[in-house]
Amino acid sequence: MHYVTPSREVLAETLLAAGPDAPTLCEGWRSRDLAAHLYLREHKPALGLGMVVKKFAPVTERATRETAERAASPAGYEALVNRFLAGPPALSPMRINSIDKSANLIEYFVHTEDVRRATSRWAPRTLDEDYARALWEELIKRAAILYRGVDLGIVLVQPGGPRHVAKRAPVSVAIIGEPGELLMHAHGRRAQALVRVEGQPDAVALLESADVGL
Fold this sequence. Notes:
Elements: H1 4-18, H2 31-43, H3 49-52, H4 57-70, H5 74-85, H6 97-116, H7 129-146, E1 153-157, E2 163-167, E3 172-176, H8 179-186, E4 196-198, H9 201-209
Parallel strand pairs: 1-3
Antiparallel strand pairs: 1-2, 3-4
Helix pairs in contact: 1-5, 1-6, 2-4, 2-5, 7-8
């Protein structure tokens, strides 16, 4: 099953329920900033350079800020979220299922949780087994990149399930959790990720202080 469309719908519902000024796990962003980011990355792909190339970041940040400011009112915010919900433009490469899955499946899951888990009271979602498997498959494709800043071997482990060696090194740690929780950890949301880390105490401490994520 192609899970990106329902994931987009869940993310949009979560944003609308939160309102324009809700906190998120994205540093410095409220929900309207996150909605602006989601909309612009699909409708203004040139701004995507600022997400990966430092010298272009000010342009992307300014566009995100201005779009978020226009969505400060409830009506403006709802309109922005609904534009994101409508999907990318007709000629966007994200209309191609394989590209859509690669670009958005993890993006939408993590950002949904960025809104859900920014409050003091939250609980993990129970994910469909096939959906969890799809998240795991996408995670292991990019795990080495997400943990590139860690000077350790990294083994991702599902409880009672498969494991994946993301990085090899003389000293390793195992990060144990369900696929969604492993995703949150790998994207730097360590405080909100329900995982268990096993390894030598100094190795576990090194992981806790390392730069994880994009």
